[in-house]
Specification:
six-stranded parallel beta sheet, 18% strand, alpha/beta, 275 residues, 13 helices, single chain
Length: 275
């Protein structure tokens, strides 16, 4: 079991790791040392199931024998568990009672995009979505509703941001995801060409009159399908839409013009994913 360490001073240097922002933990200059924060026992368990070993925990005493008991039993003995009263832990280290358990973990290596494209039949491509909640929600829906993987364009936010991880309910460790390109200029031209090279039919979720609906038989029957979702507000770029084989529009009622990107993704995944 992990090593329990009592904290009596909220300024204890041992908590410095938990004071770091997501960007500081990401450490772009030293990717081999990069980390992220997982919150809640369920999310930590799923990360450990994926082979990620915790670096350190922060939690109130009651969770050691409560919600966190199972994951702590699975930890190596040298993993520290910092604990104390809520008043001591405080929000100065980003600890809030509703999050209960925080765990700093090393960032896992992501698969190469071509390895995903070789075997996947249904993928979601997320273009320039910068809201961490939406990214987490899209990955959760993709995992639940029959998609094989999620690809993110270079300008998307980080799926291992603590809010994305939390909203995804740990599915970021269950469903393969990676970037389709590393530079802004890699999308859409190069990324779309790569999808074509690996035999994917591409379908843009966009508000266009010449669109098909998600129950389109041709899309249901295609062997390899990439559903492409756009950023909040503006949606997909014209360049991306123009390069797609299909445009898909979800029928709306009561004069509503569109859905949130995560909700739209869920509808499309349900209609066109593998079930």
């Amino acid at each position: 079991m992990a090593r329990i360490i009592e904290i009596t001073d909220r300024n204890d240097p041992a908590l410095d790791l938990f004071r770091r922002s997501d960007a500081q933990l990401r450490m772009k200059q030293h990717p081999d040392e990069a980390m992220f924060v997982a919150e809640s026992a369920k999310v930590v368990r799923l990360a450990m199931d994926a082979g990620i070993v915790p670096v350190a925990f922060l939690m109130e005493r009651k969770h050691i024998t409560g919600q966190a008991a199972e994951v702590l039993q699975r930890c190596p003995e040298d993993v520290p568990v910092y604990t104390g009263e809520r008043e001591v832990l405080g929000d100065t280290v980003g600890y809030y009672p509703d999050r209960c358990i925080q765990c700093v973990m090393p960032r896992p290596a992501q698969p190469d995009v071509t390895e995903i494209l070789k075997t996947a039949e249904r993928i979601a491509v997320v273009e320039a979505v910068t809201d961490t909640t939406n990214v987490g929600a899209v990955i959760r829906s993709a995992a639940a509703l029959g998609m094989d993987a999620v690809l993110l364009t270079p300008t998307c936010c980080d799926p291992l941001n603590r809010r994305s991880v939390r909203v995804s309910m740990g599915t970021v460790f269950q469903l393969p995801w990676t970037r389709i390109g590393t530079r802004d200029t890699d999308w859409p031209e190069k990324g779309m060409a790569l999808l074509k090279e690996y035999g994917f039919t591409t379908a843009a979720l966009a508000l266009q009159e010449d669109s098909v609906t998600p129950d389109c038989p041709a899309l249901k029957q295609t062997e390899k399908l990439a559903l492409i979702l756009g950023t909040e507000g503006d949606g997909l770029t014209r360049g991306t839409i123009a390069r797609c084989d299909y445009t898909v529009m979800i029928p709306m009622s009561h004069g509503v013009d569109s859905l949130n990107v995560a909700a739209a993704g869920a509808v499309a995944f349900w209609a066109l994913g593998k079930h």
